[in-house]
Structures are given as C-alpha cells and as structure tokens.
Amino acid sequence: MRVFTAALAIAAGLFVLSGYFFPVDQLIELRVRLIDWAIIIAGMAVLIGIYNLIAVQMEKIRTRQKGGMYGALLVVALIITFGLGLILGPENPYMHLTVDAIIVPVEASLMAILAVTLIYASIRLLRRRVDVTSVLFLAVAVIFLIAIMPMPFAAALPLQDFILRVAGMFSRGGARGLLIGIALGTLLTGLRVLFGVDRPYGGN
Amino acid sequence: MLALGFLVLAAVLFLGLTFWRQRSPASFRIIAAYERLNRSVGLAVENGTRLHISLGRGSLFTARGGSALAGLAMLRRLAERTSVSDRPPVVTTGDASLAILSQDTLQSGYRAAGAEEQYRFSTGRLTGLTPFSYAAGALPTIHDENVSANIIIGDLGTEAGLLAEASDRENTNLIAASDNLSAQSVFYASAQEPLIGEELFAAGAYVGAGASHEASLNVQDILRWLIILAIIIGAGLKILGAPI
Amino acid sequence: MAEIRCPNCGKSNPDILDICQFCQTPLKPESVLRIGQNPTKKNTGELESVLPEWLRDVRQQSRDSAEEEATQAAAQPKVQKNEPPDLLAGLASQAGSADEEEVPDWLASINPTDKPKPTPPSTPAPETDFFAQFNQSQAKPAGESPQADVPSWAASAASAADQSPASGEKDELSQWFAKASGQPEEIVEFDPEAGGVSGFDSPVAPAQEPAPKEEEDLSWLRNLEEASKQTGDLKAPKQDRDWTANFDMPVPPSQPAGSQEDLSWLDSLGGIEESAETPQQPPQQPSKSGEDLGWLNNLGPASEPQPFDASPGKPISSKPFASEEDLNWLNSLGATSEPPQPFNVPVPGAASDKPTSQEDLSWLNELGGKPEPLSTPPFAEPAPGAGDTPRQTAPLGQKKDEAETPDWLKSAAEAPSMPAPGDLSMDWFTHKDQPVDEKPVSPTGTPPSTPQPSPFSDLFSTPGEASSLSNQDVDSLFSEMPDWLSRPEPETDESAAPQAATPAMQGEESLAPVDLPSWVQAMRPVESVISETSPSAEDQPEEKEGPLAGLRGVIPGAPIGSSRRPKTISLKLQATDEQQASAALLEQILGSETSPRALITSSSIGSQQWLRWALAALFLLVLGAVIGLRSQSMLIPAPLEGSSLSDAVLSIPAGAKVLVVIDYEPALTGEMEAIGGPLLDQMVFSSHPDLAFISTSPNGSALVERLMTSSKINQPAPDGFGYEAGVQYLNLGYLPGGSAGVLGFVESPGEIIPASGVGALSDYAALVVMTDHAESGRVWVEQLQNRKQLDPALSNQPLLVVASAQAGPLLQPYVSSQQITGMLSGLSEAARYESGNNSRPGIARSYWDAFGIGLIMSIALIVIGSLWSLYTGMRARRADAEQG
User: Fold this and answer.
1) Cβ atoms of C295 and C321 closer than 8 Å
2) Does B91 touch chain A (CB under 8 A)?
3) Given A74, B176, C412, C809, which residue has the most CB atoms within 10 angstroms?
C-alpha cells in the first residue's frame, strides 16, 4: 500500500509538472483534471479538519482538561454559525453581521496584541542577547519607523525619503536573497516529494 | 525552457548527491537552533513533558507548501524519537490538509518506533482556518499542556509573534523558523535561537532525516552560486546595455 | 567356585564376595538400597564397599596394625578412640626408593639434632607398623644419618625399603599415601596438648635448605637422639632443618621438591605428625631420603628415629625411643585422637635414609600399634602420674627441648584459632568445654585406643598408634601426595624459631601461626591479622608437660576458652585522618545531591507581565483618546504627482468591468480598508465600473461587503455611490486551489467561475489585487505575466495592487519591473493618495494622527526600553559573573 501511494503521488506530480512545461493538450487536460481533483480533496479536507477541531475540543471537554469551557464555547459557536450559514446562506445580512461583529474584531484585537507584543519583544531583545546583529536589528527597525512616521511638526522630512530609498534598497536586496533561498529550498523539497524520498502522506 | 532546464539540473544534482551522501555523510556547520532542538527533545523525553510542534498554515497548493513539507519531514523524525515519552508531541496547524498530513506523519513515526499504539488522533490538530485564529487556537496548547519546547516550523506570518510570546511566558524553549520574512523578523526578536532564511529547509538534515536531505542542502548551495553568477552576469550585461 | 560378574566392570568375582574386587561395585542387588525401602541399620564397616580402594586399604592396614598393636601395646594407655590411620604407612613403601629427590620437604627439613630421649618402653611394632621400620633403619651405617634430616623411622623405612625391592617399596609408600588421602572417615585424633595440628593448615613447609638429602633425612633422628639424651626439655629446634619450622613458614619453592615434598605435609601437621605415625594411618611410605623425614628429628628429644615401614601394610617395627620424654607427646597424640585427613594427606614419602638413632624412634613402633579408642580427649594433658611414660605414638618426649621442637609444634604453642585436626573426631566436641589443662593427656607411650569410625580418623592417629603404623598404611599415605604437601613451601628461616622439643600437644588446642596461603591471608581481618612474623618462641610459654614439654610456641598460649571461640573480628575500618576527611567530603557531596537545592528563579516573569500590561494600557489610552477626539493635527505629506496608479485608474473606461481580488485576512481589515478605500473610491467616482470581487482565501469573500461599506461605495447617495450588490458589484466568492486556481481562472474565468459572466480575463478592464501578504500578489503577478504572453489583449490590462505595509516592500520589485502598474502600500501612501482624492473616503485621514502618535510612542518605547534592557542585562551578567 505504501508503494502504491508513493507511486500515485509521484505520477501525479510528474503529470502536473509536465503539463506546465509541455503544452500538450492531453497533458494540460490531465493537469487540469488532477488539479481539480486535488482542489476537491482539499475542500473535503477542510471539513475533515473542522471535524478534527470539534473532536479535539470534545475530548478536552470530556476529560475535563483546563480550558474545556472555551472548547465547549467554540463547538457551540461553530455549530450555530454552520447552521445559520446552511440555512440563511453566506450573503445573508445576519451572516455579515457575524463576520463584522465577531470575526473581524477578534482578529483585529489579536493584531493589536501582536503590536504590543512586538514592542515588548523589541524592548527585551538586548536583555536576552547583546550582539552586533541585535543592535543593528533594533537600529534599522527604529530608523524605518522614523522614516514612515508622520511628523507632528511637518508634513514630511526629506530625510525620510532618503532613508526609505537607501535603507529600503538594502532591505529589499536582503529580502530578495532570502526569498531566493527559500525558493530553492521549496524547489528541493518538491523534488524530494517527486522522487518519493519524502512521503508526508504516511509512506515513510 | 529555462525553468525546465533549471529543474532538470536540480534533479540531476539531487540524485547524484544523494547517492554520494549515502556513502559519505556530510558535515554541516553547527546551527545553534537545531542543537537546542535536539537537546530539547531529549529533555522532553526525560522529564516527561511534551513537545509542541506547529507547522504553520501553509497550503500545499501554494509555494508555502514547501515549508510545510519541510516541517513534516522534521515531524517524522521527532515523532520517532519522542515515541518513548510519556507525553506525546502535539502538532498544531492552520490548514486542514496539513493537519491530516501531520496526523499521518505522527502515526508513521510511532509505527517506525514500534509504538503505534501510542498514537492518538488528538495529537494532530487544526486550531484555526485563519492565521490569527490558528495562533489563538495554539496558545492553549502552549499554556496548558505541559509543553517544554515549542518548535514552530512552516509558513507563519506575524501571528507567530503570539506563539513566541506565549512560549516566552511559559519559559519554554522556542525553535522557530518560517519562510515569511515578517515572521522571521518576529522570531529574531522573540526566539532564543532564530532560524533565518532557508535554514528552515535544513531541519531534515539536522535531525537525521536521511542522505537526501543532506544532498538537498548541497544542491541548494550549488544552485545559489549559479544564481549569484547569473545575477552578476545579467546585471553586468544590463549595465553594458545588452538587450536582456 | 561360582563366580559373579560385576555389573560395573564386567569382571568375574567369586560369589562369596559382596563387592567387586576390582571396582568395588556391589555384586548383589540386595546390597543396594532401593527407593521406598527403609534403610537398614548397618554397621559402618559394611559401608566400606563404597569407599575408594586406597581408603579401604588404609582401613585394612589400620585394622591389621591395630590388631598387632593390641597384642603389643596392651599396657599402653589407650587414649585413642578411633583407629588412627597409618599416615606414615606409606613411608615404608618409599623407604626403598633410591630417588632422593622425592624426599618430602617435611622430612628434609627435619634436623636430627635432638638427642634422643629415653622413650617409654613400647611394644615392638609389628612388621607392618610404620614406625617399626625405623628400628630397622637404625642399624644402618651412621654415615648416612648425619646427611639427612629424615627421621630415623623414615630412614629405617627407607632402609627397609632398600631391603625389599625398591620399586615395590616405593609403590607401597605411594599407595599408602594414596590410601591415606582417601580415608577421611578414619579420624586420627590428636592430643591437643601434644602439639595439635597447629601446622596442619599451612602448607607443608619442607626443609628450607636444599641440603644434601642424605644429611637431612636423618637429621631429625639425630635431633631425637640428642633430645633423648637431654634432660627432657626440648630445645629450640633447628630452624633450618626442623620439620616443625616448616609449619611456620612456607618452604621456598627453590627447595627440591623431591622427596621433601612427599613428606612435607608432615611439617605442617604439628600435632598431626603424631597421628601420622599412628597405625590407623595409611601405610607410611618410607622416606626415600633423609630429608623427607627430617621433621621427625624434632618430634622429641627423647624420641628416637623409628623406622617406618615403607611397604604398605607392613607394620613398622616398633622400637622404643631412646628418650621417651621427648616422644611422650606422640604417645598422647596416638592415644587421644585420630588425625583427620582433609587434605588427602598421605604421609610424605619418608626419606629412605636411615635414622640416626633408632632408639629415638621407638615410639614410632608404637604408632603402628593397635588403635585404641580415645580415652582422653584430644590435646588433653597427659594424665597425672603418667609422667614421662613414653608413649608409643609420641616420638618426642615431653621434654621441653626447644631445639628439638619441630616447627609445627612451635606454631602449636600459640593460641590456636581452630581446634587441632586431632579434635576433629567426635571426641573433640565432647571435650570442647573442657579447659586445656583439664584435658586428660594420654600417658606417653600409651598405645592408641581403638579407632573410631570418624571422618577424620585417617588424618590423625594417637601417638600410641603411631608405632603401630603398618608399612602399608605408610605406603598408602604416601601414595597420594596432597597438593599442599607436594607444593614447596616458601618457608623462611626466621619463622622457624627453635621450638621446644617437647612434642607434647599440651595446653590449648591452638594452631601455630604458620604461614597461611595467600588466599587465607587475604581473608584475614585487619585487626585479627596474625603477624607475619610468628611470635618468637621466647615470648611463648614453654610447655611443661605432654609431648610438647619443653617446646615453646608450639601451641599458642591462649586460654582454651578463647581459643575455642572464634576471634572477634572488628569491622571497624582503620582509616587515616586523610581518608576520613575524604570520606566525610564524599558523604557531604552525596548528601548535597539528595538535598533539594534552592533554585535561583529569575523575577523576569513578573516584570514581563507588568510591562506588557503597561504597554497595552498606554497605547489604549493614548490612541483611544486621539481617535475619540478625532484629532487631525498631524500633517499629511503632499500627494504623489503623476503616479502611475492614478493614471491607470483614470484610464479605466466608464462602465467597464474591474476584477478586485480580496486576499487579506480579517485581522488586517482596518489597514486594507484604509488603503484600498481611496483607490476604489476614485475608480468608482471616475468610471463607475462594475466591480467583481473574488478571493483566494475563504475569509476574503466575507469581507467584500465590509469593504464596500467602509469605502461608502454601496452607501446611498449623497454619502456614497449607491452601488447595489449583484447589480454594480458582484461577489464571485472563493477561488480554491491557490496558484493553480488562479492559473485556471486566468486562463478561463468563465469555466472556473461561471457567475463571473466573462469569457476571458481580458474582458476585465483592470485588475486590482488587495493583499496583506506578498505571496498572493506574486501569484497574481506571475500568472498574469504568463497569460499576457499568450493573450495580447491582456498586454494593456493594468494590474493595480493594494498591499499592506508588510507586503509592499516585497512587491516593489514587481512595480519596478512594471509588472505591477501601480501599488499603494501602507497607510502613509494611502493617506497621501487620499489627500489627492479630495480626502475621500477619509478613512486614512482618520487613522493618521493615531498612526503617527502610535509610531512615535513605539519608537520612544523601543529606544528607551532597549537602553534600559541593555543596562540591566549588563548589570545582571556582571552580578552573575561575580557570583561565579
């Protein structure tokens, strides 16, 4: 069974990759078909994931673990939202109200907490480790904050544009290098899956 | 065709170096984060605590899936090593497909260690479908489930700051890596030993996933140098006015 | 005669026999006890069939010698209960051996310097008696005697062996030893006062000096002669050649291991020597050389070397000793106990040399006499009034001639830690509580009592029976040489302190402090370590009576009670101060490991929580106040002139379709709405396009209405543009598949999403991508770029990107490469763009002051906090470094 799954995965990957590089109608058709199937499976995977979420929270409730009440609240909210969505439809104003009143504020609050967390982490950075890179990191961060900061006494400073241009050049270059490295890593990871070396689908 | 040629070159180098590494294992530079990782795994097994492994929210349909696969490769090894622990590791993800794969990977790791009966489906969890909901859902795992080390490897954004802050509050070890630059900056300020850039994809080689992972790092190095040469040559030609 | 075939060996045996004469297997089944049968009480003598052959020979010899001695030693005191084995019977067999090298060490070490003392009249030993042969050997040329340390009896045995075929005698001696070693049931009890078996534990120490064997063979006899001529006090025996010295120190291995080894066991017997001379012993082997029987020289001053019968079974001709006082102890030995035979002690082959004075060995003749049951306990003092009655088994009288005292007797003078081997008989236990002084000593010269069937009857013999040892017994004793007997003893000369010549095994049943084997030495406790150097003989009390009379140090001078009790071994370690200090340190270390150590917990957790709360509170208060007050004091930079974004928006035809991609998460809704609002407002204001919203994330489609509301596009006029859902703007929903889905939509949007109402992507006049992460924007850029190469109609389609502040820098290269027509990134650019759009819708402007103040606070907090953290960190590290 493990060999069959590996063979199937390798074959599907090769067909999709070939469909991208070789404009053969059959390959393109096969690629589209395979991608469609993958999209369907991914969609079903979302439902499975939601079931897993419910099961984990129910397990936590059943075993009376810490935070079980929040798990119960999550499950109840999920069921209500899912039911309303099935009944009312996603374009129903009440559904929009749910999104506007619950989802967006909650995540926005988390984002705000993140801002405080990042400031706190920046403050504690030199306490955790003191080296050149840490000081440089903080210095560049402060410089960029100053560059984009609205000036209370002036509309904008020429220095800000200069900073953004010069510092941005280095930061963008470094970011580009990191992204190239990440892309290479992604490429080799895909090759490992394509050759069957890595089988995250349980074949290892 | 350039892309196809580049892909074929990468494939050939990968196969050749994999066979070579099987005979001659490579020695890589010491990465403090992975040293801390190996030690944290051992301590977790010894003192009966668990590991929290977060694979991010990278979808396999996007390029972010590569970091997710790298995280799964590392998860496979960690699952095998921690199978003897009293508390199995917990895996949290922000993508449904990734959650299913993490469960399968855990099960295969226990099976390889001969402890398949130790697997529990609840150890592989989908904590949220959005980045911040995923991070928020992973916070109780860090706070309440006796976690001694948090290993965050995958596609995460700025929401990784919440996970890092929770790890810091619990005084646990944090080994974090992401293919997202924003997350990398957050990890650099929060984690004890951050992993920057493509060090994420070296996780497999440093946890002993096999010769193929070591060969992948060598291929990356070769290709990087080729790209550097191409950039320099292209920039030079562009400066010289060549029609590129 | 009918014959019975043996079931074991298969040989024919006469039917009158119950056991096979070849393999000693019972021939008749009824003699075998089967399961379920009640054991029938049998005489132990009937069990002889299971004994080894050599042991049976010894027993037979003993019986024969006992019968002979009974007739000869009727007047002798019967102190021996058990039939002593003819340990020296084997000597007779070796008497004829011309191989002087086989002279046992114990014989070789005996220096016959003691003058023979007048021995008590003893019945002449039978011909088969071990000691009888000494009488014969006395007639040999005297020239041979000074050359050997072999006692006269041994020499006589050798001479007797010479008379007989040498090989046969040699064989007899060997056989005697072999039999003697295999007869454990015959206990030869000792009179502890006669010397005990102090030297029995130690390996036999043959003579130290490898002197000419002929000289050493008879030296002991000479000693006996000299001892007998003295007053009766045995002088200190010779150190070099005294056989008793062999018990104190091991004989160096350099000594010839010839005949000395054969009889060297006798050196260590101490009180056993007397038993070895009892008739119960296996046939004594004749000394092949004078060295073998040298020990006997020192048995007693009054003792005369008695010839021992080299041939097993041949009784040793008894000949009274010249000086009976010296040999009285032997009499007591033979009368009290049967020497045990734990080491398969065959009497070492006695030297074949002739004794110097045969008259000194007269007691030996009595050793082979009929064994008598022990009438007195072993090691018992000689009965009062016994006086100097010579004992048959006491070659040495009770004279305290230290010069004549054998080495084994010296060790016997010390307090023994264990009973003498002679006490191993049952009688020893019955007399255990009796003090030493109270122990009756068999009168010297008393023939041994009838033998008792005890396990150790072979090893010890009463002095009285010594003379009755048959040659066969001697041979059987010497037939099997025990290892400790054959092993050269590394005995030093110093320990061979001259002991009293009195061989009397008087006093306590103590063992002489002989050299212990290495393994025994390793077991000794610290405090109870017996000093290597045996106590000097001068320190030991001199024996006053008994066979050891006149000897010093033969029996340790410890009370009988203490000698019986095992020495208390102190378990306290003798540790030096340094060792104790080290032990205390180790204990402290171990104790510290188990004791809980106070963990140094950092107080960073508390301060971290307070700092977080403080930061959060500060931002909430300040920014909340700014927003609540609707402050717009902070200036907005001038709008961007001639931006390509504005030009692209203005170039959209009126009423055209525009695709808007919503790829941001709900968490960044505020920022994205603030950035995208001005762009959409200007687009709708200028072109009134039909908007189609699509999202590659599941949450994006839910944010469309919020965007339209916040940008006031779907608000009714005059506040908004009055766009209606499904009319002017359409929500296409979620586009799955990530980049693959985008590719499919780009290629054929009508097929992927039929509700889009378009056949191709080129039907859209513009494409607006609103994303909070660069990946999404990159995907759209890359797919569109590929499609533009295939579809020229897409070449003029502008791609507008609205990115968050974190995604903008990563998408800037695409702007530079003109793959992206225009991009708004961050609130600052949005505010500038909005200011150029007549501040419509005004979301960015409302956030501008709070955004500015928040940034200022962030910068200040980061700078000040980092400096403070740097200072505290350095201080903490300095404190940690000082603490070490």
Assistant:
1) no
2) no
3) C412
Tokens 């200040």 locate to C860
Relative to beta strand C12-14, strand B50-56 is: unpaired
- List chain C residues with CB under 8 Å of B59: 738
Handedness of CA C561, C563, C566, C569 (dihedral sign): positive
Task: Provide the token pair at C143.
Answer: 């020239």
What pLDDT digit, counting tens, does each position of C8-57 carry? Answer: 888 888 877 888 888 888 886 555 555 665 666 666 766 767 777 888 88
DSSP assignment of C473-510: HHHHHHHS--HHHHSPP---SSS-PPBPS---B-SS--
Q: Which chain A residue is nearest to residue B131, measuring alpha carbons?
A: A107
Number of domains in chain A: 3
Measured distance CA(C688)–CA(C798) in Å, rounded: 17
Residues C323, C125: contact at Cβ < 8 Å?
A: no
| B213/A193 touch (CB, cutoff 8 Å), yes or no | no
**Could you tell me if C673 and C843 are in contact, meaning their C-beta atoms sit under 8 angstroms apart?**
yes
CB neighbour list of residue A159: distance below 8 Å, 6 or more residues apart: A147
ipTM: 0.89
Q: What is the DSSP letter of C446?
A: P
- Please give the residue of chain A at the shortest CA–CA distance from B4: A21
Residue ending a domain, choose from A88, A119, A153: A88
C683, two tokens: 């687009």
Q: Are A150 and C638 in contact (CB under 8 A)?
A: no
Does the pTM exceed 0.80? no
Same domain, A9 and A72: yes
**Tens-place pLDDT, residues C334-389:** 444 444 444 444 444 444 444 444 445 555 555 544 444 444 444 444 444 444 44
Q: Is C23 exposed, middle or buried (0-12, 13-18, 19+ CB in 10 A)?
A: middle
Residue-wise DSSP of C773-818: SHHHHHHHHHHHHHHHHH-GGGGG--EEEEE-TTTHHHHHHHHHTT
Same domain, A33 and A102: no
Give the 3-state secondary structure of residue A67. coil
Going from N- to C-terminal start, the domains of chain B cover 29-207, 210-244
Q: Which two tokens stand for residue C232?
A: 């009766």
- Do residues A12 and A75 both lie within one domain? yes
3 state DSSP class of C758:
coil
Cβ(C204)–Cβ(C105) under 8 Å?
yes
State which amino acid sits at residue C151. P
Q: Cα separation of C381 and C444, whole Å? A: 10
CATH architecture of B29-207: 3-Layer(aba) Sandwich (3.40)
Of A103, A128, A153, the last residue of a domain is: A128
Distance from CA of residue C610 to its chain's centroid? 61
**Of residues B130, B157, B168, nearest to C773 (C-beta):** B157
Length of chain A measured in residues:
204
* From B8-22, C220-234, C340-354, the region with the lowest mean pLDDT: C340-354
Asked if C168 and C338 count as a contact pair (C-beta separation under 8 A), the reply is no
| Max CA separation in chain A (angstroms) | 71
CB contacts of A69 in chain B (<8 Å) are: none
Domain span at residue A25 reads 1-88
Helices vs strands, H then E, count in chain A: 7, 0
Q: Which residues of C touch A110 (CB under 8 A)?
A: 667
**Is the distance from CB of C694 to CB of C662 less than 8 angstroms?**
yes
Same domain, A3 and A84: yes
The per-residue pLDDT for range B164-190, each reduced to its tens digit, is 999 988 889 899 999 999 999 999 988
For residue C661, which phi and psi values (nearest 5 degrees)? -100, 120
List helix spans (H) across chain B.
2-23, 32-47, 65-81, 96-112, 131-144, 160-169, 181-190, 203-206, 211-240
CB C849 within 8 A of CB C827: no
Task: From chain C, pick out residues whose CB is under 8 angstroms from the CB of B180.
Answer: 773
Q: Are A82 and A117 found together in one domain?
A: no
